[in-house]
Structure formats: C-alpha cells, structure tokens
Amino acid sequence: MVRAMPPRFYLATSKTTGITRAELAHIAAWIGADPHYTRPLPTDRPGLVINVENMRLFAPGRKPAPWHPGMAHWRLRRPSDRLPEIMGVEPGHSVVDTTLGMGHDALLLARAGADVLALEQQAPILFYTLDGMWHYRPDLARNIRAMNVEHGVWLARAPAKSVDHVFFDPMFPRDKGGESDTWTTLRTVARPGPRLSGPVLLDAVRVARRSVCLKLAPLEPAPVIEGAPPLRIDGSKRLHFAVWDLTGAAPQ
Ligand SMILES: C[S@@+](CC[C@H](N)C(=O)[O-])C[C@H]1O[C@@H](n2cnc3c(N)ncnc32)[C@H](O)[C@@H]1O
What we know:
9 helices, Rossmann fold, 12 strands, binds S-adenosylmethionine, alpha/beta, 5-stranded mixed β-sheet
C-alpha cells in the first residue's frame, strides 16, 4: 500500500539553550527533521523549537504549543480512570499503546500500574511527547517505553499472545467541532492515513492475551471487521470505546 508522506519537520533552538549547530544537526538527524539555524522560522511546515525549559511545537497556522497534559491532568487527580478500567488493566500488565500522540492515555495506563510500550510513527512527535512527559511526571514516564514505528508493522511482527492489552487511538476522521487546540495542532502534523484497517485489528487480536481497545469518535459506530471476535461498546456518549475481550470474562 502506498501511504502519503508525513510533513517533514524542522528543528530549531532558542539562543539561550547553548545547543551548538553540530548538536542541533545531530538531534535533527535522530528524529528525521531538518536542522534550522536562522530566523524567521519556516511557516509552511511543522517544526520543534527547543528552549531551556521545554520544547514547543510549531504547526502552520497554529499558535506555538508547549507539550501539556491537557485533560490527563484532571484524569490523574481522580483515583481511577475509565480507560484502564474498561480494558481490564491491572498492575504488572503489559499494554501496547499503538498511538502515543501527546501521551495522555499512556500516562493513565502507566498510573494504573501497566508496563506501557508506546508506538508513534512520527519521530518528532515522539521526541516532543517524551520530553513533555518526563518533565511532567517522571515517575510515570519511566514506565512508558516508546518506539518510533508504524503500529501495523510492529503488530505484524509481534509474536502471538505476547502482551496483555493493545490500545488504539488513531486520529478521528476530521474535526467534528469542540476539538481542543492540542488535537487540532496534532492533526495538522500527523501522517494522513487510514484510521484502523481490518488486518491491523486482527493482528492486535492475535498479539493480545486479554483485550484490544479502540477509542471511537463521538457517534462513530463500532467497526465491522470480518474474522474478529465479538466486541462490546463501553464508556459514555462523549467518550466511548470498542473493546474486544479476549479472556472470555468482561471486566465490570
Ligand atoms: C489521536 S493521537 C493519539 C492521542 C493519544 N491517545 C493521547 O492520549 O495523547 C494519534 C497519534 O497516533 C499516531 N499514529 C496514527 N497512526 C499511527 C500508526 N499507524 N502507527 C503509529 N502511530 C500512529 C499519530 O501520529 C498521532 O500522534
């Protein structure tokens, strides 16, 4: 399948970081971005600017955005969270979060005691989010390993029944209104592509021992995937999930 190319990022620093040109070029090479040494910054493509305190994401037409925990901040203040509950995550379970994004869900899964492997196909987003998560909650970030890989590729190569849970939160098809700034910015820099294909879901069902969970867009119907086990819909009207329970016992 031919996939659309993601936009190429630039990487710049503010003057005060003390990062040299050679170091900037080195970091840019790691994340597949173009080092940018001068001002003004490009306005036709996304970029990251490293400051002393944080990193800011520049997306065309959007305000520069430092990583922030968004709703995860409030979710972490509650004693428990619906996502790990719905998936049946318990301390010590392994969870593959196939769509790291800003890492909000990964933080909640880590707080539930899971050992999280997070996958993200955009290396600059991975870099930005790991930096943000480590500043915000190093105690949780240390339980989140991350890899720059397309999740279909990772799942196709993973052995059967090798993790407890697989979670998907692909970009919603388009902004249906009410989307926060974070997601609108992420949408402008994400690689365009299919939301979730049948073969990828079937691979997740093969790889997981306990559950596969897909976050659905508001009002989105459950996907119909031939060959997949029965699913249940869980959550609220605003936030609901398709869950394939592979243990035979649905969590309460
Ligand atoms: C909606 S965001 C995920 C938000 C995340 N759950 C959070 O709490 O911040 C989707 C992210 O998944 C990434 N993504 C989409 N398709 C992917 C794929 N096939 N493989 C790996 N990452 C993917 C996008 O680049 C984007 O960063």
